[in-house]
Each structure stands twice: as C-alpha cells, then as structure tokens.
C-alpha cells in the first residue's frame, strides 16, 4: 500500500515542487541610471543550512530597496554565496547563478555545479555567485501561509477531466489568491517581480565591485537572465540561458507549453520502458506504453490508490521526464499501481494538521512573481476553452497546464513585463534540449528570435530539463564552456547531436 504512494510522491516533490552570520557594508547604490557609489561586500560564514563541506562557500548580504522606485525607502537584504576563483591570473569576473523557480533557493548552487563536474577552467575564470533572490529563503522570505490542509499542491494546476473540474479549480485558485493577500502583512508580495530581481542583480554586481557580470540561469533563471541582459545590456557580460521559458515572464501561453513539452518528451520514456517490458510490463512498444499511461490515469481518476489519484499520477509522470535517472523509479511505481485494483483504506491518507507546508515559501514566491509579472486572463471561459483544446491537442497533460491559476484572481500587475532588448552586444547563448517537458524547444526558439543578433541558439538532441553541466551532451558542454571561458560565440545557431551510444 505504501510503496506506490511514496514513490509517486517522491518523484513529484523532488522534481516539480522544488527550490546569516555574514554582513554586508553596502550603504546605497545608484539605480538603473546615475553614478554608482563605491561599495564592498564583507564575506563571512553561511547560514546553517548551507553545507560547509565538501565545497566551502562564503556568504554575505547585500541591501536593496524593497521598491526600486523609492531607493531611499525600506531596504531588504539579499543573501549571496561565493565560490571564489583560486587562480587570480585567470579570473575575469563573477558568474551570477540562478537555479529556476521562481522560488528556488540558490545559495548552494555553486556546490551543486561543482558536484556535477563544472569544468575547472570555469572555476578559474569566475567567482561563482549563488543567491536567494528576493522573497526566497534567507532573503526577506515571504509566505502565503500554506498548510498541509490546503487544497493547493504546487505550481501546476490539477488535470481537469471536465468543465466541472475547471470550475472547482477556479474556486480553489481564488481562495489561494485571497490567502496570499491576507498573509501579506508587510506588503512585500507586490514587489516580487522579475524586473525587480534583475535590478537586484545589478545591485549585487555593483556591490561586488564589478563593471560587468556574467550570468548562468536555468528554467525560470532564463527569464531573469533575459531581463538582466535587456535592462542592463552594457553591464551584462556573458549570458547563458539554459532550458528557456520563452520570455522574461511566464504567462498562460507559457504554462500551456508544458503540455506540448510532455508530448514531445514522453516518447523517450515510452521507448525506454518498452525496451524493458519483460521487467516492468508496461508495454512492448512505445505506443503500448502510452496506452498504459492513459488507461492508468483514467482508472486512478475513478479509484485512487491510497493518495495517488489521476492528478498525482499525471504530475509525477510529468516530473519523471525531467531526468532519465527517474525512469526506473517511475516504471516501478506504474507497475505497483497496475497490480492494485482496489482503493486503499481512507485512513491511509495522512490526516491534515494545519502545520505549515514545507514548500510554502517556494510556492508563495512562484505565485507572486508569476502573477505580478504579467496580466493573466480573468474570464473563466478562457480557461474552459483552453482546457478543452489542450485535452485534445496534448492529451497526456494539457488539461492540467491550461487550467486556472491563482493569477486569474491576483491584484493588477505591479508594472509591465520586461521587454526583450535586441540592441546590445552579442553576448546571449540560448541553450536548449530539443525534448524538455517543462521548457520545450519552442521556448528557446522564441527567446532567440526576440534577441535577434544578440543571441545564438544551441539546440541539443537530448531529453530532459537542464543541459549545461547537468546534462550529458559533450558538444553542448564544450560549446558553452568555450563561450564562458574564452568568449567564443557560435557564428550561427548550432545543433549538438546526441552522443553515439557506447
């Protein structure tokens, strides 16, 4: 009884929902215009939840205005980390990092990249700068007050089997928006925007004493990096945008691309499972594996097994496609669920206690940034129509990602979204797997088109979410490393083929 539940939940939480003693002596820096004042960061110990080994980091805080339009008003502290270059002769600057989200903590990202084998010449060339962006973790964290008894379970809405399910999700989405507003005691949620995060990046650059900053961002980090390169083109150095959402913000169209991303990426899992049919029994061909998925999802809609219903099954399968390493666990979960034909006992579901949800902070930041960046449709008919269309166009997952978000009931956006600026140096490398469930290839193509001559698209014949260092394509690793270390930008858009098996 417990195995299918824990396996599906484990895949979901780790892949989808994901995300100080140091002081800074930075009085006040100029905003987007005007002369900057001299500033210095004091490095010290990191917060207790940043491991001290095997890769020790320094940490500090940088004060930034809560409202960049009021630079003399309230300030908040942004906590940053540093893995310093140990080769002064080769050091060329700082590489600002963002892991995605919005809402993901980034203080330990330098350690993650080291553990995944980021090349030593990149470590020589840059101080790697991780950070919790505003609202996240150790940087003036915000909370909508989510608890374990809320009917909200992450960024992606539940799969809507019919119009009634859309209406039910609209009720939940509206209550979530109201909950966030009611818990915003300090009035900080409205100031969580991609534009403000980009302004914070420039404050950090200046506080570090750098004329320019390079940037490596994944997933939502591509929106932040694109905004920074657009708002501060002459202060941006070498910008790598990996696994792209398609703009400087996520809107309803961007969420709907998740449905197409799953359709494009699922065949890789289906082929993997079909080759292992004798072990898992999910289908002898990719087509049979797809049919198993659809049959199992519909069965779980009607009769959940424990806490695994059709929504959680679809969501966990979507999360599986982030990394091939998850395929085996997913196949095991499917096999366990297929062997069960009856519902689990009601008391198998843990009773809610009203305790804070472990992902409260990351969910809160995701909603604030996503809903503040751009206006979302408010008419429920728009969502009903989109769900109906995508249930047919993208039957694996489209009726989830087209569904109603709390953004439909959010306050008006704090300002217009950042527009891509194609007037600037050719310094943006757009890196993109051709099959990515959450940020499909089209997102990279859109961003590359908007940047025009400022960017090149490096598309990779690969599957999953995350390419540079996190993926296994040697061509993509080499091209991106050459760009970061030597500044070598491909002369034209480039495709990296899948490595030969062996």
From TrEMBL:
UniProt entry tagged with the keyword Nucleus: no
Gene Ontology molecular-function annotations: hydrolase activity
Signal peptide (residue range): 1-30
Top-level taxon of the source organism: Bacteria
Coiled coil: none
Regions crossing the membrane: none
Peptidase S33 tripeptidyl aminopeptidase-like C-terminal domain residues: 395-496
InterPro entries reported in the protein's UniProt record: AB_hydrolase_fold, Pept_S33_TAP-like_C, Serine_prot/Carboxylest_S33
Signal in keyword set: yes
Keywords tagged on the record: Hydrolase, Signal
Disordered: region residues: 340-359
PANTHER family: 2-SUCCINYL-6-HYDROXY-2,4-CYCLOHEXADIENE-1-CARBOXYLATE SYNTHASE (PTHR43248), TRIPEPTIDYL AMINOPEPTIDASE (PTHR43248:SF29)
Family of this protein: Belongs to the peptidase S33 family.
Protein name: Alpha/beta hydrolase fold
Organism: Actinoalloteichus caeruleus DSM 43889
């Amino acid at each position: 009884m417990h195995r299918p539940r824990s396996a599906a939940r484990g895949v979901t939480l780790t892949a989808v929902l994901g995300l100080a003693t140091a002081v800074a002596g930075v009085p006040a820096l100029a905003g987007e215009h005007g002369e900057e004042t001299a500033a210095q960061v004091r490095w010290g110990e990191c917060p207790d939840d940043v491991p001290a080994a095997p890769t020790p980091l320094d940490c500090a805080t940088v004060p930034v205005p809560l409202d960049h339009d009021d630079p003399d008003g309230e300030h908040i502290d942004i906590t940053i980390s540093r893995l310093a270059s140990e080769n002064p002769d080769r050091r060329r600057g700082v590489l600002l990092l963002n892991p995605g989200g919005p809402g993901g903590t980034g203080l330990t990202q330098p350690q993650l990249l080291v553990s995944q084998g980021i090349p030593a010449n990149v470590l020589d060339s840059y101080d790697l700068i991780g950070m919790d962006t505003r609202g996240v973790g150790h940087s003036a964290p915000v909370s909508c007050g989510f608890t374990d008894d809320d009917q909200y379970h992450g960024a992606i809405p539940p799969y809507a089997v019919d119009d009634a399910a859309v209406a039910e999700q609209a009720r939940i989405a509206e209550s979530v928006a109201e909950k966030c507003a009611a818990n915003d005691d300090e009035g900080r949620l409205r100031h969580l925007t991609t534009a403000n995060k980009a302004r914070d990046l420039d404050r950090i650059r200046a506080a570090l004493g750098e004329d320019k900053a390079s940037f490596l961002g994944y997933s939502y980090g591509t929106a932040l990096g694109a905004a920074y390169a657009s708002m501060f083109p002459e202060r941006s150095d070498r910008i790598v945008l990996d696994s792209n959402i398609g703009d400087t913000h996520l809107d309803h169209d961007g969420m709907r691309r998740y449905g197409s991303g799953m359709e494009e990426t699922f065949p890789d899992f289906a082929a993997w499972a079909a080759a292992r049919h004798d072990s898992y029994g999910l289908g002898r061909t990719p087509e049979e594996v797809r049919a198993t998925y659809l049959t199992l999802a519909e069965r779980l809609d009607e009769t959940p097994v424990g806490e695994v219903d059709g929504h959680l099954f679809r969501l966990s399968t979507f999360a599986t496609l982030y990394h091939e390493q998850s395929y085996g666990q997913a196949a095991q979960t499917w096999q366990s669920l297929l062997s069960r034909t009856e519902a689990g006992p009601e008391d198998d579901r843990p009773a809610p206690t009203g305790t804070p949800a472990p992902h409260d902070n990351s969910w809160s930041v995701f909603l604030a940034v996503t809903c503040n960046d751009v206006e979302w449709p408010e008419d429920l008919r728009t969502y009903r129509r989109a769900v109906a269309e995508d249930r047919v166009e993208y039957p694996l997952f489209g009726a989830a990602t087209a569904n109603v978000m709390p953004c439909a009931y959010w306050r008006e956006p704090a300002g217009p979204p950042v527009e891509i600026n194609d007037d600037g140096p050719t310094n943006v490398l757009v890196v993109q797997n051709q099959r990515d469930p959450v940020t499909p290839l089209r997102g990279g193509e859109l961003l590359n088109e908007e940047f025009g001559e400022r960017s090149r698209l490096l598309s990779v014949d690969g599957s999953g979410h995350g390419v540079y260092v996190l993926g296994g394509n040697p061509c993509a690793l080499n091209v991106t490393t050459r760009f970061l270390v030597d500044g070598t930008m491909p002369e034209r858009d480039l495709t990296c083929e899948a490595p030969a098996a062996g």
